[in-house]
């Protein structure tokens, strides 16, 4: 009668599973992705498709080589998500081989060599982005201003493929630095922000995504909406996003107050670059972030501080990928030192002393039905 | 009373509607009852009956052995058919020594002393009678109630907590008992307060049982020492440690006892059994069992003689409608999977469930841990289940103890929320088994060494004794000679 003799308790389960969590994250990032595709047209779509397909193929290949079940491994959606997040962090008109190399690196070196899903130390997509940025700085920093699908400047299907295949000549008409990159260059020439920003940065346009940048860093409000939905669905928890955004907000605010001409205001920091994407979708990657809430806060703050430091004083205009990868490396250390306090034990793990209050009757009144309120 | 909070926990669907509100019905007496000698924590009971002997209802079948043990009584009148091995309600499904009773259907009570007023008895005597009635913790822990009462009185416990939380899904036996027999429970509480010499009692009930809350509140209104409290419905609010924390904010120190906090937790079923034992001199020979689950056509709350088979209960509730159903003793969170329906109900059995594959969610194979930390958030003991299971997989027995394996109470919250469907408590059970085996090995080695040393010492003693005896003989031999010599002088 009973087929499963070896089954142990519990004999009930919450509905969530790994594929469901991955689908929720994919669903949450979909609006921002679609908006990005709409802004940058066919070449962006081609790049996204190539990145995702190469990622999936590499995942399947590695699983097959390792002699593991290929179908269930690919179906958990982690490779799909890695490909997607990587594509979102690339310049939208980057040539096909950037996406292909990046996706292969992310899945093979970033994840599978560590032992596959759950075993990697670094966020695969961010590791690949860092590798690409260091190896191919020109391709990785060729940004362009939005070319919405309905406007006449959006390339057609064939033209789109030519751009994807690398026949894209950067002309001033289409390219433009991101606001972070532009501000950095100009600040380097001792121009003050009040000279730099007007004409290049409007908070409203930045929030709506009408700026140059990678696919996923334009529509901040759609990214934020997706992130909030994930929080509400409890796919992610608040400590990492709150720590990361909070740290950037506090640092940017403090420095901006000190010298508004040298340090951009917190709004610019929050609304530009891939900070929002990083805080809600990348730093929250469970595999590479701490498990205990307090450790997650530390991790989030660490990411935020690094992002601000790299943006302000580092060698690159944007630092989300570096910040996340660096904090990933610190995760085992955080997990080792920051653990929840166990019931009946002190923070140091020693048994708690017998409570002194124990011998006194507790201070309660007979409340009867009132207790039910 | 302001409630405190406990860490973690989960919200499994209650599924209590299946059997809640169904009046307690008596199971028709089965022709044969199977009474395992080990139904409690501690030493198994020792049979005092012989095969073929006629016994009356309530007659002693086996007596307690040692300090922590409990006697067994005949759940009905009849003839002892056999004393042998029978499948026990235990995770292994292995047989254990069992008294098998053929009932005669007469329900003839054995002669018993007329009960006296429990409040005229000394607290020691009350605890003694609770023990003699074979009462154990009815919530599933099966710890002998009299031992708990005596120890708690010595520890100076001031508050008795009566646990009516019933946080396991499906199970409604305590709910129904409180709805129908609240006055008897309250009387049992008063007797227990006397045995404890404690000043007050709190009846803690999860807020998903409004009828039971009302019934208990009405029943204890006349006694100012007893208070009814409404708990949030969150598993495992009914675990003694979490319940104490909810009520007082205090934690039982690691490795310590619940009574260290000045509270003692007993189940409502135990209070009812105490009332029966002290007021009516009835030993613990029956209990209320919830028969429920998606594969049970007519879920019910049954009053069942100890020793009835799960098969008897299920047959009375319309059989099992799904051939793939998993049979459980207890609730789905901590219940025991049964190897088959031929397993007897024991004193701590609160539910017999038949769950469909859909209810269990067994379609999922375990996949790798993604370190999402949901198990960490869910663990009411503040442990890191993912790290513990990693140590168990790596057979790192020192590491797993350092991470607090001994603090884990196997509530199953971690596995309930795990999106990778990793059977975490099974890893912990495996580690516990390995550690126990290791300890046994060490003990054996130590004992062997001790015996060897003793043997060595014995040999040495013998050698010394021999040498001394020889020396003495020589001396004695020598002495007459010297005497002779002396004489010759």
Task: Walk me through what this model shows.
- The complex is a heterodimer of chains A (373) and B (489).
- Chain A has 373 residues and is mostly helical.
- Chain A has one domain: Ammonium transporter fold, CATH 1.10.3430.
- Chain A is built from 16 helices and no strands.
- Chain A is globular and about 70 Å long.
- The N terminus and C terminus of chain A are likely disordered.
- The longest helix of chain B has 65 residues.
- The radius of gyration of chain B is 28 Å and the shape is globular.
- Chain B is built from 14 helices and 17 strands.
- Chain B is an alpha/beta fold.
- Chains A and B meet through helix 1 of A and strand 11, helix 6, strand 15, strand 16 and helix 13 of B.
Nutshell version of this structure?
With 373 residues, chain A is an all-alpha fold. Chain A is built from 16 helices and no strands.
Largest sheet of chain B: 6 strands, mixed
| Most extensive interface between two protein chains, with residue counts | A-B, 63 and 92 residues
**Backbone shape of chain A:** globular
Order of helices and strands of chain A: HHHHHHHHHHHHHHHH
CATH homologous superfamily label of the domain at 16-26 and 114-289 in chain B: NADH-ubiquinone oxidoreductase 51kDa subunit
CATH class of the domain at 16-26 and 114-289 in chain B, anyone?
A: Alpha Beta
Can you name the CATH architecture of chain A?
Orthogonal Bundle
- The percent range for helix content of chain B is 25-40%
Specify the structural class of chain A.
mainly alpha
CATH topology of chain A: Ammonium transporter fold
Strand content of chain A: under 5%
Number of helices, counting only DSSP H or I runs of 4 residues or more of chain A: 16
Cα distance spanning the termini of chain B: 105 Å
Specify the helix fraction band of chain A. Answer: 55-70%
User: What ranges of chain B have pLDDT less than 50 throughout 5 or more consecutive residues?
Assistant: none
Going across the major beta sheet of chain B, what is the strand order? 1-14-13-17-15-16
Shape of chain B: globular
Major sheet attributes of chain A = none
What's the average pLDDT of chain B? 90
Output the number of helix runs of chain B.
Answer: 14
């Amino acid at each position: 009668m009973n087929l499963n003799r070896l089954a142990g308790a519990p004999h009930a389960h919450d509905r969530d599973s790994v594929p469901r969590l991955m689908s929720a994250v994919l669903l949450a990032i979909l609006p921002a992705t679609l908006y990005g595709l709409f802004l940058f047209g066919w070449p962006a779509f081609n790049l996204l498709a190539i990145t995702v397909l190469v990622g999936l193929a590499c995942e399947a290949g590695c699983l097959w080589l390792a002699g593991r079940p290929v179908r269930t491994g690919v179906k958990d959606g982690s490779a799909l998500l890695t490909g997607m997040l990587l594509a979102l962090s690339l310049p939208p008109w980057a040539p096909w081989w950037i996406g292909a190399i990046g996706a292969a690196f992310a899945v093979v070196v970033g994840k599978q060599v560590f032992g596959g899903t759950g075993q990697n130390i670094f966020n695969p997509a961010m590791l690949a982005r860092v590798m690409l940025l260091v190896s191919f700085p020109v391709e990785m920093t060729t940004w362009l201003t939005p070319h919405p699908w309905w406007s006449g400047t959006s390339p057609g299907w064939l033209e789109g493929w030519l751009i994807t295949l690398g026949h894209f000549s950067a002309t001033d008409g289409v390219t433009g630095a991101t606001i972070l990159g532009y501000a950095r260059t100009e600040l380097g020439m001792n121009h003050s922000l009040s000279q730099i920003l007007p004409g290049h940065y409007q908070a409203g346009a930045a929030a709506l995504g009408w700026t140059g940048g990678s696919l996923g860093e334009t529509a901040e409000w759609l990214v934020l909406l997706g992130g909030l939905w994930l929080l509400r669905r409890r796919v992610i928890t608040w400590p990492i996003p709150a720590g990361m955004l909070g740290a950037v907000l506090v640092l940017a605010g403090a420095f901006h107050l000190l010298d508004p001409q040298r340090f951009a205001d917190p709004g610019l920091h929050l609304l530009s670059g891939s900070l929002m994407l990083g805080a809600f979708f990348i730093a929250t990657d469970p595999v590479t972030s701490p498990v205990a809430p307090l450790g997650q806060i530390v991790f989030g703050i660490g990411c935020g501080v690094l992002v601000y430091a790299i943006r302000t004083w580092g060698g690159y205009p944007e630092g989300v990928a570096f910040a996340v990868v660096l904090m990933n490396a610190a995760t085992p250390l955080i997990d080792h030192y920051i653990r929840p306090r166990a019931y009946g034990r002190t923070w140091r793990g020693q048994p708690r002393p017998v409570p002194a209050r124990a011998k006194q009757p507790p201070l309660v009144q007979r409340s009867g039905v009132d207790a039910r309120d | 009373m302001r409630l405190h909070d406990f860490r973690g926990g989960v919200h499994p669907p209650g599924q209590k509607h299946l059997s809640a509100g169904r009046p307690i019905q008596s199971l028709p007496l089965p022709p044969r009852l199977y009474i395992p000698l080990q139904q409690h924590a501690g030493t198994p009971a020792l049979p005092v009956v012989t095969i073929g002997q006629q016994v009356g209802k309530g007659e002693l079948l086996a007596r307690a052995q040692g300090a922590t043990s409990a006697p067994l009584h005949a759940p009905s009148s009849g003839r002892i058919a056999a004393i042998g091995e029978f499948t026990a309600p235990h995770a292994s499904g292995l047989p254990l020594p069992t008294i098998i009773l053929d009932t005669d259907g007469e329900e003839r009570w054995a002669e018993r002393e007329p009960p006296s007023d429990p409040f005229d008895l000394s607290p020691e005597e009350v605890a003694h009678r609770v023990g003699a009635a074979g009462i154990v913790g009815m919530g599933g822990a099966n710890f002998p109630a009299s031992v708990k009462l005596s120890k708690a009185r010595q520890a100076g416990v001031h508050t008795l907590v009566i646990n009516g939380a019933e946080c396991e899904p499906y199970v409604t036996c305590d709910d129904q008992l409180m709805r129908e027999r609240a006055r008897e429970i309250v009387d049992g509480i008063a007797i227990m307060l006397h045995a404890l010499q404690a000043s007050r009692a709190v009846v803690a009930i999860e807020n998903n049982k409004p009828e039971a809350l009302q019934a208990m509140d009405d029943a204890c209104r006349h006694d100012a020492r007893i208070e009814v409290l409404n708990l949030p419905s969150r598993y495992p609010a009914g675990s003694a440690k979490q319940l104490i924390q909810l009520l007082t904010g205090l934690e039982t120190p690691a490795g310590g006892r619940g009574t260290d906090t000045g509270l003692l937790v007993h189940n409502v079923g135990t209070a009812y059994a105490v009332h029966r034992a002290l007021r009516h001199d009835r030993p613990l020979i029956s209990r209320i069992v919830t028969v429920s689950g998606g594969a049970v056509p007519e879920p019910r709350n049954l009053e069942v003689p100890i020793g009835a088979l799960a098969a008897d209960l299920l047959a009375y509730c319309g059989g099992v409608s799904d051939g793939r159903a998993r049979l459980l003793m207890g609730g789905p969170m901590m219940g025991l999977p049964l190897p088959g329906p031929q397993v007897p109900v024991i004193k701590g059995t609160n539910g017999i469930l038949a769950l469909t594959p859909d209810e269990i969610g067994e379609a999922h194979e375990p996949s790798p841990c993604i370190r999402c930390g949901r198990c960490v958030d869910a663990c009411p003991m503040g442990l890191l289940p993912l790290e513990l299971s990693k140590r168990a997989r790596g057979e790192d027995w020192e590491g797993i103890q350092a991470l607090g394996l001994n603090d884990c109470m196997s509530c199953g919250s971690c596995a309930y929320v795990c999106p990778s469907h990793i059977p975490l408590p099974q890893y912990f059970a495996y580690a516990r088994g390995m550690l126990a085996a290791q300890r046994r090995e060490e003990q054996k080695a130590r004992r062997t060494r001790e015996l060897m040393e003793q043997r060595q010492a014995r040999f040495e003693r013998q050698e010394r004794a021999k040498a001394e005896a020889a020396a003495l003989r020589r001396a004695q031999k020598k002495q007459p000679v010297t005497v002779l010599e002396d004489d010759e002088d």
